[in-house]
Amino acid sequence: MSIRKRGNSYQVIYRCPGEASPRTETFKTEEEALIRDMQIKLAKKNGTFEPPVKISKGAVRAKKEITVSDFLDEYVEVYGLKKWGNSYYSMSTGLIQNYIKPYLGERYVRSLTVRDMDAYYTMLLDKPAVVVSGHLDTGAKITAHTVGRIHKLLKSAFSKAVVWEYTVVNPTIGATLPTAKAGKRAVWSDDEAIAALAACEDQPLRICLYLALGCSMRLGEILGLQWANVHIDDALVAEGTAFVKVDRELHRCNNKSIEALERVNRSTIIYKFPSIMPKKATTTLVLKAPKTESSNRTIYLPNAVVEELRQVKVRQEEYKRLMGDEYHDYDLVVSQLNGRPYEIRVIDKAFYKLITRNDFRPVVFHSLRHSSTSLKLKLSRGNIKAVQGDTGHAEARMVTDTYAHGFDADRKLIAREMDTGFFSKVGATQVDEDIDADMLHKLKALIQSHPELLSELLEGTK
Question: Which residues, including other chains, have CB under 8 Å from residue 18's CB and lie 6 or more apart?
Answer without folding.
Answer: none
